[in-house]
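Box 3.1 A note on notation
Throughout this textbook, protein chains are presented in two layers. The first layer is the amino acid sequence; the second is a token string describing backbone geometry. Keep the layers aligned when reading.
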Amino acid sequence: MSAAAVFRLPCGRKPDHKNKMKKENYSRILPLTPWTASSMWPFAEAKPLLVLIVSLSLFGFGEGMLVVSQLGSTPWTVLSQGIARISGGELGTVTLMISAVVMLGWIPLRLKPGLGTVLNMLLIAGGLGVFVHFVAVPESLAARAALCVGGIVLIGVSSAFYLTCHTGAGPRDGLMVGLCQAGGWRIGSVRTAIEAVVCLIGWLLGGTVGIGTPAVCLRRRLGGADQPETAGTLFSGSLKIPKQPENSKAA
């Protein structure tokens, strides 16, 4: 099936040549799949809706596995743990509230959310909250290590399915991409700076930092999530991601 067929507009008209070329370029980084949505809000499309719901819920479970392993959480979850510890709130609820606060940063950056953005906020926080509520911390180090590795793998696989729906970035990735657009900075540098700051704050507040924390960041970097082309697909072309100089790419 061609890219034009996959991304046929709801009214039956094909996208214009410019949009078609954008989709074809994106497919080289994030492939077109049977569940790729034709718009940012695919309410009437069963496949992308199902994939979004399942993958983002599993993403939340993966986050929960890292928390329960007590071997290190993702940077933003470290922040959530710290705030939950001093406030007495539920981890899932705090995670959702942080996402809502981050979304406020989208306003001056003029970012446009999609259905994936909203479900990202709700389902990841929900999955995380449910997992840590019902699953106890294992006593053996081997079991905790298995949870840590399993969580990293589950986050990687579920994020791949979520991203290939092409329905918008999550709140945190959106903020990162928007800042790169506004300042012309490197995506990897901005992500590292933001995550280092939130992780440090979370750790100072009592969040858990361990081997799982850098392992998740390394997995994402090796997977190409910090590449400009990958970030650009999260918004289906609504942002112009600054190209890196040829000499910096070679480096």
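Residues 1-28, 228-233, 236-251 have pLDDT under 50 and may be disordered. Residues 36 and 165 are 4 Å apart (CA to CA).
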